[in-house]
Design goal:
Strand content: over 45%
Shape: elongated
Keywords: Signal
Structural class: mainly beta
Organism: Herbidospora solisilvae
CATH topology of the largest domain: Immunoglobulin-like
Distance between the termini: 129 Å
CATH class of the largest domain: Mainly Beta
CATH architecture of the largest domain: Sandwich
Largest sheet: 9 strands, mixed
Protein name: DUF11 domain-containing protein
Length: 418
């Protein structure tokens, strides 16, 4: 009797399954019910990493790829291993508990031990933001392996560019333009400003790009200021990025700096198929001037200049030994090329302006030193300039020129009056 009751219940259950429930108002004719449509375009994907363990604390990656199959659920998996998924910013996307291929179980029984080695596949949900997966032994509290997920994501998007999680952006660096002072004096830092123009020719956007602005200096220079920045670029957009670099001359003469800007997509799922224009380098030549000592109006301690007067102001450019007056290198003023001389406030000289030597030549003689009393044994160069290049706001005037193939620069105080 009990067995018959079970049969009746089973038959009733089967009947319930076979006879579809009809909502109120639906037609009685089953032929009018739409046939369910399967979604063959389901974009669900997973990332599969095959890992070989040689112990609990040592493992190597055998292969990793993107699969078009969904990742199975890890709900209920014990915390034997933990998979930590992070994005390109290092932020946690997910933490997943999973089994270890080293653990052995007997069907229907309890855990019986650990294998000395073994391989297993870790399958996690796909995300276009994925960057790394870290495998951690939970009990030991120790990271066993970190897997770089960016290469397989990039390979997948290269192979399936129409996938909705993949974008394509033609990134480029279209210009790298440095702007520097006319010259830099040894030991005195100057600022070089570099404008880098980056672009996204599409077809997709906006995308986040990583822009690296760097420099390589030649001998005789020290420079700092390279950096990595991020910028968002819509399709068809350009952006100018400004970066300041601090440059210091260590030796006199023409020195070179190569400024390089490169651009790459931040996410591995953004594909830049043509990287040929992703890096651009521009070379800048820096004129490193040696510092010299000058004496405006030799014999006058106040160096007063009257703008209402006529004539010229005398300026002695002194011959010095290395270390004299703090100058790092020796300088022979008798070798000055008169046609290259310019006189004026510092900003005026840096703008490639200033007054030329009034007589077109130098006067070689033993000039008074800056104490306005001493005359040493060196032969100096006395030069002359019109002083209308100065204004009453100026407290410093300088001379720049060339001697023996090197640029030199020196300044002295001045008191300008009407």
């Amino acid at each position: 009797m009990l067995k018959r009751a079970h049969w009746v219940i089973a038959a009733a259950a089967a009947l319930i399954i076979l006879v579809p429930l009809r909502a109120q108002g639906e037609p009685n004719d089953p032929s009018t019910i739409p046939i369910p449509q399967l979604d063959f375009g389901d974009p669900a994907k997973s990332v599969v990493a095959r890992v070989k363990f040689t112990s609990r604390t040592a493992a190597t990656l055998e292969r990793v790829k993107v699969s078009k199959s969904r990742a199975h659920t890890h709900i209920g998996d014990p915390p034997i291993l933990r998979l930590g998924l992070t994005d390109v910013d290092g932020q946690v996307v997910d933490r997943i508990n999973t089994w270890s291929p080293l653990w052995t179980y007997q069907e229907g029984g309890d855990h019986v031990g650990l294998r000395p080695s073994g391989s297993g596949s870790f399958i996690v949900p796909f995300s276009p933001a994925l960057s790394t997966m870290t495998v951690t032994d939970v009990a030991l509290g120790r990271d066993v392996l970190t897997v770089d997920l960016k290469p397989p994501l990039r390979e997948f998007c290269l192979a399936t560019p129409d996938d909705p999680d993949c974008l394509e952006a033609d990134l480029s660096v279209t210009a790298v333009t440095p702007a520097a002072p006319l010259f830099a004096v040894l030991g005195k830092p100057v600022t070089v400003t570099v404008a880098s123009v980056v672009a996204n020719a599409g077809p997709d956007g906006p995308v986040t790009a990583v822009v690296r602005q760097d420099l390589a200096v030649g001998a005789g220079l020290t420079a700092t200021g390279g950096a990595t920045v991020e910028t968002d670029l819509a399709a068809g957009a350009t952006r100018t990025l400004i970066r300041d670099y601090t440059v210091t001359c260590d030796q006199g003469g023409a020195k070179t700096i190569d400024f390089t800007t490169s651009i790459t997509p931040k996410r591995a799922t953004v594909v830049d198929r043509d990287p040929s224009a992703d890096t651009r380098t521009t070379r800048l030549t820096v004129d490193c001037a040696i510092p010299v000592t000058i004496n405006i109006k030799p014999g006058s301690a106040d160096n007063k200049v009257n703008l209402n007067g006529n004539g010229v102001v005398p300026v002695a450019v002194l011959t010095t030994l290395a270390g004299e007056y703090g100058n790092p290198v020796a300088f022979d003023a008798t070798r000055i090329e008169a046609a290259t001389l310019r006189f004026g406030p510092p900003a005026t000289l840096l703008a490639a302006a200033g007054a030329p030597e009034a007589h077109g030549r130098i006067h070689v003689e033993k000039s008074v030193e800056p104490d306005e009393r001493t005359v040493d044994a060196d032969r100096d160069a006395v030069t002359h300039y019109r002083y209308d290049v100065l204004s009453v706001d100026d407290t410093t005037a300088c001379v720049v020129g060339r001697a023996a193939g090197l640029t030199f620069h020196g300044c002295d105080h001045v008191e300008v009056r009407h």
